[in-house]
Amino acid sequence: MKFEIPELKKQLFEMIIPIRWGDMDAMNHVNNTTYFRYLETCRIDWMHSIGCVPTPTGEGPVIVNAFCNFYKQFEYPGAVLIKMYASDPARTTFETWATMERADKPGVIFAAGGATTIWVDFPKQKAVDLPDWLRQIVS
């Protein structure tokens, strides 16, 4: 099943991640699981950039699903330019999306992915309303 990234979205963040030799598999391309690591790294770095550092005694984000569409193979050496977006804030959730390009081939999408993020009270293990400050960022 292929998920489409929506037209209506807000860019939140971008970063470059070097492709490491160890990211490749036996077929000499970046292993599919590594794309999810790239997506995770981008989400985490974005969260830190907005001061969202979850603690087990407070509230914070939890990913409830994730996907990645693979269009072209990344190979070593190189670097991945990831652009992260958000859309569809609801009461307790919002969607994140990302495109992945080679930094030396701007505009050519090699992969695209996303995740649904839910805001959780960790001690209660229960979804709670998105904080207003976060809603403003992702809206």
Describe the fold and architecture.
It contains two helices and six strands, in the order βαβββββα. A hairpin with a 5-residue loop joins strand 3 and strand 4. The mean pLDDT is 95. The chain has a single domain, classed as Thiol Ester Dehydrase, Chain A, CATH 3.10.129.10. Helix content is 18%, strand content 40%. The longest helix is centred in the N-terminal third of the chain and has 18 residues. With 139 residues, it is of the alpha+beta class.
In short:
By secondary structure, the chain is an alpha+beta fold.
Structural class: alpha+beta
Report on the biggest sheet. 6 strands, antiparallel
CATH topology (fold) name = Thiol Ester Dehydrase, Chain A
Give the count of helical stretches: 2
What's the Cα radius of gyration? 16 Å
How many strands?
6
| CATH class membership | Alpha Beta
Helical amount among residues, as a percent range?
Answer: 10-25%
One letter per element, helices H and strands E, the order comes to: EHEEEEEH
Summary tags:
139 residues; alpha+beta; Thiol Ester Dehydrase, Chain A; six-stranded antiparallel β-sheet; 6 strands; elongated
Secondary structure blueprint with pairings:
Layout lengths: L9 E9 L13 H18 L9 E12 L8 E9 L5 E10 L6 E13 L4 E2 L4 H7 L1
